[in-house]
């Protein structure tokens, strides 16, 4: 079962982070956003954290390898893919209008 | 006759006796064998495909000319809603589930699926639910709000009839069946395999179907929650989607597409798995880049959950929000492309033979690639703003679903036909059918694309002359009828070749995977002994492995225990670990399906009392089911062959029921997550929030909840300890029951504080949260009741049983605390 | 939408032609590879070993879509960003309220003025349409002028329109709304400056 978890984890974390960023953006454009808190700075900080977590996961996969070669190869591939996905799907926070 | 041949024959006779279904009609109702259930499933799903196809022909007949008087809007709205609903829910998902039931145990080298009775139950629930929806349509009471059922159009105010209820209740009952099958598939792939079949030696289809089954468990619950909320709004006026009282119609769209987008991949991935299985065999080679394809399938499965908003690009969500989903949507093209190029590379390294399955796979390539490209186009936000809800979308989704699903499934049917029927193609209508279907498909839907670009909306019952759409629609209609004739020929071809006799050799395609090592057609027991494999393609290593299996040279060839046994292996390495005893024939799954479906469908005719009675019936039948399944005495390890003494699964700490519960709770957890999302969504976005007042807890409620949850988490652990130490588990069971009651009491206090859930969406949400807690506390109580019965009857509890109840108790305690905390939090903060 | 008559529709139509050309090229390329793979003569040397496999995965499977998609997505987002209702010179705001099965249009510049199923706008000036619904979900769509935007009860969505020249443009609701959906259409009349003034003053334009 740990083999399956190693394979499933990186992208599942991506999904959670992706949804969290989207939720943060939704909150940013809602009535609950605190006055004076910069929306873009917050979003960029969250995205940076997201990318950092995804990097740590990749490092963890690389430096704590599974004993099973197939699982290790697949998990490495997917952790890399998840990191790339995190960067790619977070890029819009840098430039686009936030609540337009 | 040689001695070895005699051994094989004796083994066959013994196993055939042990695994035999009941005779005659009774046999159909009591069988749980994957061969029988799979065949029934396949036949019923095909029947629904025919119905959905007829509805499509009605649509194209209506749209052939402008101002058609063939149908009015009332009839047309029902027809297109039902076409979508039937094809998505009654055909696409059940069809691949059926095919997997038939071939998966063979591929994995096991004798049946993990929970044969659950499979039978799923089949019957599906048959009843699907039939109810069709009967409603024949009575003119079909839903007519479109297959994605957007409220407020589908709310009681704008859809007063029972059509929407038919959809909500009928389809939800079928989703229950899909979830049952998904749990069965996951546990089978993870635990029920040939000896030595490690994760990297699994047939590629097993990976695909594993991903798909997990997706079903995580995608369906939001939809089930949405259906529950909408049905509650319709029946009891709880305002989840009505703006005036704090609801928001966009909540439905989120819940629906949280399901709806993964659904597309749930449909595509099994087809892709079939292609990855069939294509290498057709090219006389093996799959190029197995690991890459596995990674691509997993990525596609997860990424597809990050796309749901791309169905909502025109709902007014801020552009940045859309941008995330646009980026994620284009991202999914990458793993898809990895698969496509791996397949093309596979063809390149082999020598292709143009048999029917290969022909249909080429049809897949030619069609699906276009569907994928238009998919990328509509993932681009501004373009989506133009073509959303036009015929362009209709054409795109048919390219993806027919090209990406129906064509590969036809390839799969032709490929597996020798295995399922033991017969070979004698008549060759198949080629003609292919050349009718594929070109006609492209003419039809290229015309539909163009009509959409020229501004034709989907779902209008007719259109006016002079808009430049006449020729396109006529062309689409005519060629769609040619396509329909082609599909009819495929059905005819398969039917004829199923019944015409022409026996042939085993493994006619020269495939490398185990399903071709079983006798043809596969007997109920599948394999005479559980194969031992040392690579991904055991039949290529040893073409005569089928004889070894038949002679009982694998595991579990000993029939002296005279019961249905199969092997359970460790998840990663596939080492033999346990012996599972599969259940005998029983009418219980059928009975349980009858009461389940009655509980779902009785509210349609306002027979709420019948529904409640049926729910009691569900509990009663389930108790009898579990009671009968429990073995009478402890046996200790049994001889599995090859000198392995393995424990019986039911005597281990992680019996199959524990694994099944684990994955069922995954679905349950997603359902709960969707509920929390809905609550947060309304709080953030719904126009008429905050509610007049939030709920302020007193001390008693939270104290009861904390105490109850703590004790509920503790008690089953005490029970496990007591059983392990040989002491009585009675006190622990009693404590757990008290704890569940306390938690239910805390939930009840929330409801009592807010007596009017119809007043505001906030109060209605609190009732749902509290209802979640009370429902799960009730479930745990029923399980504890079963344990208590066993104790009273003087039977020793097993650790496995206590651990299963423990899983459910942990889940109830954890989600109970979160749910009640979420109900109380705004009041504490305010 | 293939005959654009305003900047938004034009930008999107441009996007379409680019994507169609790119899509067609990719289709031909991939099907060509497929045909080559299938028709490869058996006498030809077997496909290159590990290096060949790497080319299929890294080059074609990963690299090719990543580059194309990145370019396309960025392009699409830039276009989308330009179409948003930003601050603009000469901006006019109108209101659109949908119900089963009609549209009521209001004009904040001329309080009390309302039209049924006909929206009047000035030509050549950016127009913000504030869209909402009184009953079920509808969608505001004038194919030749811009993309569509939903009318959701309880929410107001703002769509930017601009008609390049005076004229009449067909509009339709584009979200299924029940049996009267087919007839749920409207007209947009774009006026020159003088006619627009006359309209706002309550005269016939």
TrEMBL record, chain A:
Ranges annotated as spanning the membrane: 7-24, 44-63, 70-91
Keywords, sorted A to Z: Membrane, Transmembrane, Transmembrane helix
Protein name: Uncharacterized protein
Native source species: Tabrizicola soli
From TrEMBL, chain B:
Keyword Cell membrane: yes
InterPro entries: Cyt_c_oxase-like_su1_dom, Cyt_c_oxase-like_su1_sf, Cyt_C_Oxase_1, Cyt_c_Oxase_su1_BS, Cyt_c_oxidase_su3-like_sf
Domain Cytochrome oxidase subunit I profile span(s) in chain numbering: 28-534
Residues that span the membrane, as ranges: 40-59, 79-108, 120-142, 166-192, 204-230, 264-283, 290-310, 322-347, 359-385, 397-417, 429-454, 474-496, 579-601, 607-627, 662-682, 702-720, 732-752, 764-792, 804-825
Domain of life of the native organism: Bacteria
PROSITE patterns cross-referenced by the UniProt entry: COX1, COX1_CUB
Entries under SUPFAM superfamilies matching the protein: Cytochrome c oxidase subunit I-like, Cytochrome c oxidase subunit III-like
Membrane topology: Multi-pass membrane protein
Residues forming coiled coils: none
Record keywords: Cell membrane, Copper, Electron transport, Heme, Iron, Membrane, Metal-binding, Respiratory chain, Transmembrane, Transmembrane helix, Transport
Compartment(s) where it occurs, according to its Swiss-Prot or TrEMBL record: Cell membrane
Major subcellular location class: membrane
Family of this protein: Belongs to the heme-copper respiratory oxidase family.
Protein name, per record: Cbb3-type cytochrome c oxidase subunit I
Originating organism: Tabrizicola soli
Automatic annotation (TrEMBL), chain C:
Reactions listed under catalytic activity: 4 Fe(II)-[cytochrome c] + O2 + 8 H(+)(in) = 4 Fe(III)-[cytochrome c] + 2 H2O + 4 H(+)(out)
Domain of life of the source: Bacteria
Protein's membrane topology: Multi-pass membrane protein
Domain Cytochrome oxidase subunit II copper A binding: 89-202
Chief place where the protein resides: membrane
PROSITE patterns for this protein: COX2_CUA (PS50857)
InterPro entries named among the record's database cross-references: CcO_II (IPR045187), CcO_II-like_C (IPR002429), Cupredoxin (IPR008972), Cyt_c_oxidase_su2_TM_sf (IPR036257)
Keyword terms, alphabetized: Electron transport, Membrane, Transmembrane, Transmembrane helix, Transport
Pfam family, one: COX2
Transmembrane segments: 15-39, 60-78
Annotated localization: Membrane
Keyword Membrane: yes
PANTHER family assigned: CYTOCHROME C OXIDASE SUBUNIT 2, CYTOCHROME C OXIDASE, SUBUNIT II
Family named by the database record: Belongs to the cytochrome c oxidase subunit 2 family.
Protein name stated in the entry: Cytochrome c oxidase subunit II
Organism: Tabrizicola soli
């Amino acid at each position: 079962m740990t083999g399956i978890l190693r394979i499933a984890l990186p992208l599942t974390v991506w999904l959670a982070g992706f949804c969290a960023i989207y939720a943060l953006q939704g909150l940013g454009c809602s009535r609950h956003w605190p006055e004076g808190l910069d929306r873009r700075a917050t979003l960029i900080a969250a995205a940076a954290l997201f990318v950092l977590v995804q990097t740590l996961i990749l490092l963890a996969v690389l430096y704590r390898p599974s004993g099973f070669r197939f699982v290790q190869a697949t998990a490495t591939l997917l952790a890399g893919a998840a990191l790339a996905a995190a960067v790619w799907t977070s890029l819009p926070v840098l430039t686009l209008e936030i609540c337009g | 006759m040689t001695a070895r041949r005699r051994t094989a024959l004796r083994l066959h006779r013994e196993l055939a006796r042990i695994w035999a279904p009941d005779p005659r009609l009774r046999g159909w109702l009591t069988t749980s064998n994957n061969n029988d259930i799979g065949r029934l499933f396949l036949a019923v799903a095909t029947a629904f495909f025919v119905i959905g196809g007829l509805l499509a022909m009605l649509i194209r007949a209506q749209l052939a000319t402008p101002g058609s008087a063939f149908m009015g809007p009332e009839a047309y709205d029902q027809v297109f809603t039902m076409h979508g609903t039937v094809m998505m829910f009654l055909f696409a998902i059940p069809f691949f589930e059926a095919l997997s039931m038939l071939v998966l145990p063979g591929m994995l080298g096991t004798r049946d699926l993990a929970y044969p009775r659950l499979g039978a139950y799923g089949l019957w629930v599906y048959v009843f639910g699907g039939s109810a929806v069709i009967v409603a349509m024949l009575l003119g009471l079909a839903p007519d709000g479109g297959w994605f059922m957007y409220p407020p159009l589908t709310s009681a105010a704008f859809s007063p009839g029972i059509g929407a209820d038919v959809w909500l209740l009928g389809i939800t009952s079928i989703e229950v069946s899909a979830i049952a099958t998904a749990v069965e598939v996951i546990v089978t792939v993870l635990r029920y395999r040939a000896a030595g079949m490690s994760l990297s030696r699994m047939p590629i289809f097993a990976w695909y179907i594993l991903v798909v089954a997990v997706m079903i468990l995580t995608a369906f619950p939001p939809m089930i929650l949405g259906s529950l909320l909408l049905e509650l709004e319709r029946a009891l006026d709880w305002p989840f989607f009505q703006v005036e009282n704090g609801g928001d119609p966009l909540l439905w769209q989120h819940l629906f597409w949280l399901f709806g987008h993964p659904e597309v991949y749930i449909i595509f991935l099994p087809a892709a798995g079939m292609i990855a299985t069939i294509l290498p065999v057709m090219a006389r080679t093996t799959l190029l880049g197995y690991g890459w394809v596995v990674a691509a399938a997993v990525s596609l499965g997860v990424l597809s959950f990050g796309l749901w908003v791309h169905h909502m690009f025109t709902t007014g969500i801020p552009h940045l929000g859309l941008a995330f989903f646009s980026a994620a949507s284009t991202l999914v093209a990458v793993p898809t492309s990895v698969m496509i190029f791996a397949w093309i590379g596979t063809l390149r390294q082999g020598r292709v033979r143009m048999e029917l399955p290969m022909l249909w796979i080429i049809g897949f390539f030619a069609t699906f690639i276009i569907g994928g490209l238009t998919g990328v186009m509509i993932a681009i936000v501004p373009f989506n703003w133009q073509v959303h809800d036009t015929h362009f979308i209709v054409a795109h989704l048919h390219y993806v679903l027919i090209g990406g699903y129906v064509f590969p499934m036809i390839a799969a049917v032709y490929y597996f036909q020798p295995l399922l029927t033991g017969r070979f193609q004698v008549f060759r209508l198949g080629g003609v059918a292919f050349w009718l279907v594929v070109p006609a498909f492209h003419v039809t839907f290229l015309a539909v694309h163009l009509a959409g670009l020229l501004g034709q909306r989907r779902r209008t019952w007719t259109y006016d002359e002079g808009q430049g759409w006449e020729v396109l629609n006529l062309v689409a209609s005519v060629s769609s009828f040619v396509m329909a004739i082609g599909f009819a020929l495929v059905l005819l071809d398969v039917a004829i070749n199923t019944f015409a006799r022409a026996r042939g050799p085993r493994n006619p395609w020269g495939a490398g995977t185990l399903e071709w090592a079983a006798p043809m057609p596969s007997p109920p027991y599948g394999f005479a002994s559980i194969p031992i494999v040392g690579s991904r393609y055991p039949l290529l290593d040893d073409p005569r492995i089928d004889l070894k299996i038949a002679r009982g040279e694998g595991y579990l060839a000993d029939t002296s225990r005279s019961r249905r046994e199969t092997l359970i292996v460790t998840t990663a390495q596939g080492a033999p670990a346990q012996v599972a005893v599969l259940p005998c024939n029983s009418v219980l799954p059928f009975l349980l399906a009858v009461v389940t479906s009655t509980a779902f469908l009785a509210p349609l005719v306002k027979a709420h009392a019948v529904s409640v009675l049926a729910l009691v019936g569900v509990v009663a039948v389930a108790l009898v089911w579990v009671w009968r399944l429990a073995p009478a005495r402890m046996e200790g390890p049994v001889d599995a062959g090859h000198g392995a003494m393995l424990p019986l699964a039911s005597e281990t700490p992680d019996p199959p029921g524990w694994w099944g519960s684990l994955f069922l709770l995954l679905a349950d957890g997603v359902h709960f997550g969707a509920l929390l999302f809905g609550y947060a969504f309304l709080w953030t976005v719904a126009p008429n929030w905050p509610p007049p007042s939030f709920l302020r807890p007193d001390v008693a409620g939270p104290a009861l909840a904390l105490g109850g949850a703590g004790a509920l988490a503790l008690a089953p652990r005490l029970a496990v300890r007591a059983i392990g130490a040989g002491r009585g588990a009675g006190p622990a069971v009693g404590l757990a029951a008290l704890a569940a009651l306390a938690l239910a009491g805390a939930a009840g206090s929330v409801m009592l504080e807010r007596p009017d859930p119809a007043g505001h969406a906030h109060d209605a949400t609190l009732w749902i949260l509290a209802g979640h807690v009370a429902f799960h506390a009730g479930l745990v109580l029923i399980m504890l009741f079963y344990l208590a019965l066993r104790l009273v009857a003087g039977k020793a509890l097993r650790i496995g049983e206590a651990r299963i109840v423990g899983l459910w108790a942990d889940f109830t305690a954890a989600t109970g605390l979160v749910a009640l905390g979420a109900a109380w939090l705004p009041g504490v903060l305010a | 939408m293939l005959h654009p008559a305003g900047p938004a529709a034009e930008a999107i139509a441009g996007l379409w032609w680019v994507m169609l050309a790119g899509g067609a090229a990719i289709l031909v390329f991939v099907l060509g590879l497929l045909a080559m793979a299938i028709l490869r003569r058996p006498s030809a040397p077997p496909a290159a070993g590990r290096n060949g496999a790497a080319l299929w995965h890294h080059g074609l499977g990963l690299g090719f879509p990543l580059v194309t998609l990145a370019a396309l997505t960025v392009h699409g987002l830039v276009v989308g960003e330009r179409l948003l209702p930003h601050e603009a010179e000469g901006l006019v705001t109108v209101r659109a309220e949908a119900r089963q099965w009609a549209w009521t249009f209001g004009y904040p510049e001329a309080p009390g003025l309302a039209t049924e199923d006909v929206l009047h706008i000035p030509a050549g000036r950016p127009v913000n349409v504030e869209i909402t619904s009184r009953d079920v979900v509808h969608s505001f769509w004038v194919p030749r002028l811009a993309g569509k935007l939903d009318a959701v009860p309880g929410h107001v969505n703002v769509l930017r329109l601009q008609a390049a020249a005076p004229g009449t443009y067909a509009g339709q609701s584009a979200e299924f709304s029940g049996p009267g959906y087919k007839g749920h259409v409207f007209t947009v009349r774009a006026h020159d400056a003088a006619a627009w003034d006359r309209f706002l003053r309550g005269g016939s334009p």
